[in-house]
Design goal:
Elements lengths: L8 E3 L12 E5 L8 E2 L2 H6 L3 H18 L8 E3 L5 H14 L3 E5 L16 E8 L4 E9 L14 H8 L6 E4 L11 H14 L6 E5 L4 H14 L3 E4 L10 E5 L4 H10 L4 E4 L7 H12 L17 E6 L2 E4 H4 L6 H16 L3 H6 L9
Parallel strand pairs: 1-12, 2-5, 8-9, 9-10
Antiparallel strand pairs: 2-11, 3-4, 4-13, 6-7, 7-8, 11-12, 13-14
Helix pairs in contact: 2-10, 8-10
């Protein structure tokens, strides 16, 4: 790890004494059951795993023969398992285990329902549509009374920035800036990102090092932030029941004070936690299993995994898979789920991990 980073950066598995210099841990960017998580990653993931690709193809053929059109994964989504209170408890518990006081900001996709709990910070991960693709902005610490106004600006970035300037305690983070989530190609995506940052440089308070993205990509974000002279900040991007893989360390006693440090003093200290050291492919497999496992005790009673996955066969009429499958999961679906379990187990075995191309590219 280079010593010329634009901010202090620590890895807890290398040095467990750093946390003693701070009194607060800040968990940023994690999701609850109010997030709609797109299913369009499934064909992209399956393309690199022949066994899963075969099952996807069989499912698609069966779906098309029944409905007359192919599966459109853009019409489907899943919801993370935790309710807002459980999510705050999970993140807080990890932070207190480090001997720190917790501050937690939940950021559901284009949804502020988690902020209905007055003790929760009003924050959101806003999808911002650009001509070539889209980006995600983490917008934290909005005033509760006006927070929902932000949802109107997803396709109007210039107006969004003008609106946000009136809130001096808000924090605007460019989440996973170099993740080409839409698949438009890395060069095109990076050009779009740099153009956006150039236009709104003074409105962006930090670039995110993402706890669910590979280190090679995060290191490129470090280089980008260094060149553009922007602070870096943590963002765990938790979707399941594993707490965020990175947090911020601070001596701030409130979120307002933390915003002051990052936004105005441009100070930030990121701590990566041991779960980030786990091979990237295995972490992705574990996250996929959060979709495909049952959750007894779900706060809405959605105990089966198929209760939490939704699809619009008819646009605008979403139903859970459980509603479609009144006689239980189809055989092909059960086979697919079993294969995912097998791939997760295989990812833990080094020879198989190498053979299937699932080894992590690099680690910090």
């Amino acid at each position: 790890m280079s010593n010329n980073l634009p901010l202090p950066l620590s890895f807890h598995w290398k040095d467990q004494t750093t946390v003693k210099q701070f009194r607060t841990g800040v968990s940023l960017h994690s999701h609850t059951m109010h997030s709609k998580e797109r299913l369009d990653f499934i064909p992209r993931m399956a393309a690199s795993i022949p066994a899963l690709q075969g099952e996807i193809n069989r499912l698609s053929r069966r779906f098309e023969s029944f409905h007359g059109h192919p599966i459109d994964f853009n019409r489907g989504w899943w919801t993370p398992p935790l309710d807002p209170l459980s999510a705050v408890r999970l993140e807080s518990s990890q932070i207190t285990s480090l001997g720190l006081a917790p501050l937690v900001s939940l950021t559901d996709h284009d949804n502020l329902d988690a902020s209905r709990y007055e003790s929760n910070i009003a924050s959101v991960e806003l999808t911002v549509k650009l001509p070539a693709s889209f980006i995600h902005l983490g917008i934290h610490n909005l005033p509760h009374a006006r927070a929902h106004e932000v949802l109107a600006y997803g396709d109007r970035p210039a107006e969004l920035m003008t609106w946000l300037r009136q809130f001096p305690n808000a924090l605007l983070v460019f989440n996973h800036p170099l993740w080409d989530e839409a698949g438009i190609g890395a060069p095109t995506h990076r050009a779009m990102v740099e153009s956006f940052i150039s236009e709104f440089h003074h409105d962006i308070h930090a670039l995110e090092l993402n706890g669910l993205r590979p280190w090679k990509e995060n290191k490129a974000v470090v280089d980008l932030a260094t060149r553009l002279q922007l602070p870096l900040i943590s963002g765990g991007d938790r979707h399941g029941t594993e707490p965020n893989a990175n947090i911020n360390l601070t001596n701030a006693a409130s979120f307002d004070e933390f915003v002051e440090e990052v936004r105005h003093q441009r100070r930030s200290h990121i701590l990566f936690l041991p779960q980030y050291k786990t091979p990237y492919a295995l972490r992705i497999a574990n996250n996929l299993m959060e979709i495909l496992r049952d959750m007894p005790g779900h706060s809405l009673g959605w105990s089966r995994w198929s209760d939490r996955v939704f699809y619009e066969v008819v646009p605008g009429q979403a139903r859970s898979l459980s509603e479609y499958w009144t006689n239980g999961e189809p055989v092909l679906i059960r086979t697919f789920v079993s294969l995912v379990h097998i791939m997760r187990s295989s990812a833990q075995l080094p020879p198989i991990r190498f053979a299937t191309g699932l080894i992590e590219e690099c680690r910090p």
